[in-house]
Amino acid sequence: MIVGAGPRGTGLLERIAANAPELYAGTGLDIHLVDPHPPGAGRIWRAAQSPLLWMNSHAEDVTMFTDETVRMAGPVRKGPTLHEWAGLDSGTFADRQIQGRYLRHVYDRAVADLPDGVTVHYHPRRALRLSGPREGRQQVWLEGRPRPLLADLVVLALGHLDAELDPEQAALAAYADTHGLVHLPPDFTADSDLSALRPGEPVLVRGFGLAFVDLMVLLTEGRGGRHDGDTYVPSGQEPVLYVGSRRGVPYHSKIGYDWTGERPPLPRFLGPGEIDGLLARPDGFDFRRDVWPLVVKELGFAHYHRLFTVHPERTAVAWRDFEEKYAAAEGDAEVRALVAAAVPDPADRLDLARLDHPLDGIRYGSHEEFQDGLRGYVEADLDRRHDPAYSADLAVFLGLLSVYGQLVRLGDIGSWWHGFFSYLASGPPGPRLRQLLALSRAGVLRFVGAGMTVTAEDGVFRASADTVPGFSVAARALVEARLPEPTVGRARDALLRELHVGEAAETPDGLLRVDPADGRILDGGGRPHPRRFALGPFTNGRTPGAFTRPGTGGPAFRQNDATARAALAFLADLAGGTAAGEG
Predict the structure, then answer these.
(1) At 103, is the secondary structure helix, strand, or coil?
(2) d(Cα 504, Cα 501) in Å, to the nearest integer?
(3) Residue 28's pLDDT band (cuts 50, 70, 90)
(4) Domain enclosing residue 566, as ranges
(5) Whether residue 410 sits in one domain with residue 468
(6) Is this prediction's pTM over 0.70?
(7) Transmembrane stretches, by residue range (predicted)?
(8) 184 with 219: CB under 8 angstroms?
(9) Are 37 and 138 part of one and the same domain?
(10) Per-residue pLDDT tens for 478-508?
């Protein structure tokens, strides 16, 4: 049984279809697929949402199919990218409804590719509870069904989850109830009820990532406003959005040019050998002390390989000499000295700390001065991200994908890395940031700054930030513009809550602990459950997404393949069939 029929469940089904001819020789197999939302699209990509909402990747960079770069035991089954399937221009940012149809195509193809005797049964219901002995059949209780479904094996592919409020959010929500205010908690923006956000009134928005971009669109174009070139023409129905965050800036724009020439030879400083070494440490490892220096070295290598080999006129030494010294350099100070001597222009040097916190130490004398300053920052980011003269930025993006694929093996490394990756590599389309600039010039959007804090006092919410000392703004509405944290302990999903209080183990960050080899759920003693698996962002094996850019290895594809093979081998043994190869 697969609980969750969105992209992750669909990807698993595709891998079952690819591996079944080799691994399953039983007389028949019934696959029960459980999800209240449509198979393929699932909740996030369903058709029933605004057509104004886009994907944040070019259509050519979205695939649900494996290729030779995926390190897996199963066979490659190639298929079309989104732009090939939909006939879109490769650089289009498709709306989510189109992506939902593409995912339905992948699902239908996976079902059609299953061998004879393998049947899929779709149940449009919620799974409420999972029970059953370790060595026996599992019972899955569904909403509105008096008896459980019986399954020899269960895979949880639940995707993004709703969550109970954390203590701070709960206190703000209680204050809102008492004082007649509006508090919208973290949520998938398309599911939020935005009707309480009144035209012309200030709204505090905490979060400057992709959830904010969706909110921005729904409260402007979604209320009848329109963009005329670089000018926004209001409808009069928009609230005034005061947005800030820890960084105080939006996620970096998607890169707006194609890769040409040689790719950096990755991995170089953070590959399987380094991960093996970290996992073998008897006293464990610390992310900042032991892992982050390897990440920095890897991303720096990708950046400088591109700069030296494609833009040698902006360097002072030959690549071969620089590479040798870079490989031997130890510590930040030694690397910085090497780079300063070899790369004359500071704009060509990779500074991850400044990229992560661009407003650190910067103060503005007034709120209006900061509006001008941040617009200039966004414009500069857009210019750079659409200029192939700075193609080392795209090399860093490829480096980030390579690093993520390696770090998945380490399990729970904390939430910081995932946020940093999204901020640099998974930001909004350039056109969205140009719309943001137009909204700012129109006065519909106002920037609060970095280190944004929100207090509840005097019957209102009040926001301030480090960037503009002395400035604050009061509002009767606060929106937490981000997805809920994927913690098992606060998940509203009844099935996961029951696992949380049962034998299943969780990480210090509250993620469901699974075996990185195949996704089996682990108990408190580290024992893998023989019949229960889990894949997705609520586990310590979380990946950047269920679909990915072609030719980049796709760690989710690798996980899907490993889980499919383990499940098929288990079921083949159970059925008395013959399992060939490794499960």
Answers:
(1) helix
(2) 8
(3) confident
(4) 2-162+485-575
(5) no
(6) yes
(7) none
(8) no
(9) yes
(10) 999 998 887 888 888 889 888 876 778 988 8
